[in-house]
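B., you asked whether I could sanity-check this one before it goes into the benchmark set. Here's the sequence:
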Amino acid sequence: MIIVTVIVVIMVSAAGAITVANMSDDQANAQRYEISEMPLQSAVSSLDVDETEPEISYDDGSAEQGFSISLFDIGHAVLFTPPTKPWTLKKVRVYGLCNVTLSNVVFALEIWDNDSNLLYKLSDYSIAYFNTTSEWTEIDIPDMIVTDDFYVCIFERGSLYVGVDEGNPAMRSYVVIRDPKGMVKEEGFNWMIRAVGA
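And here's what the prediction gave me:
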């Protein structure tokens, strides 16, 4: 029986480019992947929201940059702690923009429980939800009752850029691998992904 360990390493260079290294025990299979940087506008757009809906957020609302991961099974994730238990998750908000050159690529929004078990999945073309300018996008999901911490994961496969907030990292943002499941905590920034509920 051979056990293969997969580790994702994120390195940020002075120029802001990010490289993800997918490393296994078999070095012949080791690969490196570039993550694209988002073309940001100078101002963050506001989103018309229902102020009565409780929102969980760990970013400060301003994107210093944003990134796109072109790999099928590697994505962005934020770990959320519900303000009360049980709590009903109703929507997900993501700050980003559609990559027009890959707008025909399907992205996936997944909700995982605290043990990384899949609770919900939505797959669609990014252009159906995201605009070609940087802004908040709201994605409705069926009401989901959560009783513990949960992850919101975006597997965008290069089809969209997710905003990055570099102020006061909350230590809740991860780069995740779907199969085999694994994650690396990002200590230098927050993915701009939020949870809305009741």
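One thing to flag: The CA atoms of residues 109 and 122 lie 5 Å apart. Otherwise nothing jumped out at me.
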